[in-house]
Amino acid sequence: MHRYRFLLSPQWVILTVVAIALIPTMIKLGFWQQHRYEERTARNNLVSAALHAKPVPVEQLSSPGHAVTRTEKYRTVTATGTFDTARTEVVRRRTNANGDVGYHVLTPFVLTDGKVLLVNRGWVPADGTQTAFPKIPAPPAGRTTISGRLMADETTAASGIKNIKGLPDRMVMLIDSTAEAHRLGAQVLGGYMEQTAPASKGGSPEQISDPGTEDAPLNYAYMIQWWLFAAAVPVGWWFLLRREIRDQEEAAAAPQPKENEPAAV
C-alpha cells in the first residue's frame, strides 16, 4: 500500500476533501435547476391554457372581493358597460415594450349591473418629472363591449414595487381592487382587466403585450450540466490518481547514478 502513501500528503488531502464536497453540491444544484424547470414549465402551460381558453363574461370568473387564482389569471374575459373617464388614475413607473418609462392607464368600467371592473387600458409616456397627470386619449363613449386578460391584484411581494404613499393626485403604484373600492365607493370586481380589444384609436394608450413564456429548456440544460459536472469530479480525481502513480513508477524505474559516480552534466 506504500504506493498510495502520497494520498496522505496535504496536497492530496485537500484535493480529495474538495472533490467530496463538490459532488453533493453539484447534485443539489442540478435538482434545484430541475425544480425551476418544472415550475417554469407549469407556468408556461397555465399561461398557454388561459390564453387559448374560450372568452367568458368577467362576472363568471370574478366578483367583489374575489382573489384571482393562478388558473384564472390571463383568461380572456369580456365586459359590457361604460368607462368612467372622470375617475381615471395612472399607475406610475411602468415600461412599454421598448423599455420606456411611463404610466399604465387605469379606468373604472361600470358594468350594466352597477359593479365596477378596473381596466388597464395600456401605456402612455411620462411627461417630464412624472408628477403631472399625463394627457390620455379618451376611450369609447357610451355603452360598449370590451375584452382583455384577467389579472390578479398587484402586491409588493409579487411585483417588488413599493407602494409609496403621498403621491400626486390620481396616481398609484399598484393596481389594488380593494383600495380602488374604497376610493370609488363602489363594488369593484377582484383583480383587473388588461384590455386587448377594441384597439385604441391612434395606438394610444399603447396596448400591453401578451405575457411571454419563461425559458424552461434553459433550466433543463443547466440541470444536465450540473449533474455532468458531478459525474466528472470522481473521474477527474481518478485520472489524477493514476497519473500520480504512473509518475512515481517511472521515477522509481529510472536508472540511478552509482555511488561516487558523478552525475551527468
TrEMBL record:
This is SURF1-like protein. InterPro entries: Surf1/Shy1, Surf1/Surf4. Pfam families: SURF1 (PF02104). The chain crosses the membrane at residues 12-32, 220-240. It is a multi-pass membrane protein. GO terms for cellular component: plasma membrane. It comes from Streptomyces misionensis. The lineage of its organism: Bacteria, Bacillati, Actinomycetota, Actinomycetes, Kitasatosporales. PROSITE patterns: SURF1. Keywords: Cell membrane, Membrane, Transmembrane, Transmembrane helix. Belongs to the SURF1 family. It is found in: Cell membrane; Membrane.
